[in-house]
Design a protein that fits this description.
CATH class: Mainly Beta
Distance between the termini: 68 Å
Structural class: alpha+beta
Order of helices and strands: HHEEEEEEEEHEEE
CATH topology: Lipocalin
Number of helices: 3
Radius of gyration: 23 Å
Number of domains: 1
Largest sheet: 11 strands, antiparallel
Helix content: 10-25%
CATH architecture: Beta Barrel
Number of strands: 11
């Protein structure tokens, strides 16, 4: 009986030591923190404005710009970007084991795919919970070359996410475009983007 009782405190001591030396549960990676923070905006829409457009011009100027965090799962976010009455664009952010992927889904008004669609890139560094960069991937570069716009092969898309601001930025040599969206005030969500009415 004494032998049995002497084993109990020894076992308890070993268990306590084991728990004390066990590593703490790993914190979110920057990509996971970024993704989860963005997912908290699901269902909400926000108005934006162009803050940089070099060289100036293009079809976005003077249009009402709305982003809508419309569809959310633990692996993917769909964020339509409405430019005036043009509902052709949806940003799709996917989380995988290697990080995050940003793709641009472009549709015609009848819902069919634009010839220039599904382009984007994958994170190549851990980034930060507030900032993730997506340089053009090989699939995208092949598409740009096939469509006669190889100058876009150097594109990097960046998303900045702060408590009061969501920014979408595209940059390459000689070209910068950035839209900032005010996260402090929601607006009425727009209708479904083209080709996604049933989702």
């Amino acid at each position: 009986m004494k032998k049995h009782l002497s084993v109990i405190p020894l076992t308890s001591a070993l268990l306590t030591t084991s728990l004390a030396s066990a590593p703490a549960v790993a914190a979110h990676t920057p990509q996971e923190a970024f993704f989860e923070q963005l997912r908290t905006l699901c269902g909400r829409a926000f108005a934006g404005e162009i803050v940089e457009n070099t060289p100036a011009g293009g079809s976005f100027e003077g249009k009402r710009l709305i982003m809508h965090v419309r569809r959310c799962s633990d692996k993917q976010l769909h964020i339509p970007f409405h430019v005036g009455d043009d509902a052709s664009r949806t940003w799709i952010i996917t989380r995988n084991d290697a990080g995050l992927v940003l793709k641009h889904d472009h549709r015609h008004q009848d819902g069919s795919n634009d010839v220039l669609t599904n382009y984007g890139g994958h994170t190549v560094s851990s980034g930060w919970p507030q900032v993730q960069d997506f340089p053009a991937d090989t699939e995208t570069q092949d598409l740009f070359v096939a469509q006669g716009i190889p100058q876009s092969n150097g594109n990097t898309w960046s998303i900045y996410l702060y408590p009061d601001r969501f920014s979408y930025r595209m940059s390459r040599d000689g070209r910068v475009f950035q839209v900032d969206f005010d996260l402090t005030t929601s607006v009425k969500p727009p209708a479904a983007p083209w080709g996604h009415e049933d989702h």
